[in-house]
Amino acid sequence: MDVDAILDRRRLKRRLTFWRLAAVLAAVALVMVVARLYGPYDGAHVARLTIDGFIQEDPEREAAIRAAAADPDVRALLVRVNSPGGTTTGSEEVFHAIRHVAERKPVVAVIGTMGASGGYIVALAADHIVARETSTTGSIGVLFQTAEFSGLLEKLGVRSESLKSSPLKGEPSPLAPMSDEVREAMRAMVADSYDWFATLVQERRGFDDAQTRLVADGRIFTGRQARQNRLIDALGGEPTARHWLQAEHGIPLEMDTRELTWGDEEEQIAALLMHGLAGKLFSDKPLTLDGLISVWHPR
Question: Which residue among the candidates 13, 160, 164, 169 is catalytic per the annotation?
Answer without folding.
Answer: 169
